[in-house]
Amino acid sequence: MELLKMEKVKDGRYLKNYELTYRNKAGKEKKYEIVSRNDIAGPHMIGEKVSGVSIVAYYEDKILLLREFRMGVNRLIYNLCAGMIEEGESLEECIQRELYEETGLSVKKILNILPPSFAAVAFSDVKTQIAFVDVEGSFEDHTSENEQINAGFYTKEEVHDLLETEEFSSRAQIAAYLFSIS
To answer: What's the rounded Cα separation, in Å, for the pair 94 and 100?
Structure first.
């Protein structure tokens, strides 16, 4: 596959839409649409910038899950604490801020931060990292008026039951499943 041309077709507040023209393996042109959180200056910049973090948080023998209304799917789902890295902010600062904003909790210890990975490769170059942390504190709501989030700690048994009956984001579902069988 060879990228022949890239054109920005929409410049939204949070997402930018691009049309990519490829030469496929049969030598024919293929148009492909992607969205990005970043202004992409050229083909060499596609998928280069880490834009956010997902946080797998633990408290004692429980995992933190958010019951969150997501406008993109128009429903409540179970999700991880997550967010976009702000201009000039380090990844560690983003983890602290997002955890506090969405739950009122604070990071006790960062256990691990995985290398960047792509969040939705079928239609986007969005690249994020996954952080594993121990947390402390008590739940408080510091969300904006445009967010509906209820945070809770769940045992392995509770998570097992939720996985059978509730809808999750894909990363939260994987983290919850691995937690429930560990």
So the answer is: 10
d(Cα 115, Cα 118) in Å, to the nearest integer?
10
Q: Would the pTM count as exceeding 0.85? A: yes
Burial state string for 88-110 with b = 16 or more CB within 10 A and e = fewer than 16: eeebeebbbbbbbbbbebebeee
Looking at residue 144, what DSSP letter applies?
-
Judged by phi (left if over 0) then psi (alpha if -120 to 50, else beta), residue 37 lies in: alpha
| 142, pLDDT greater than 90 | no
H or E segment at 55?
strand 50-59
State residue 61 phi and psi, 5-degree precision. Answer: -105, 30
What pLDDT digit, counting tens, does each position of 107-128 carry? 999 999 999 999 998 899 999 9
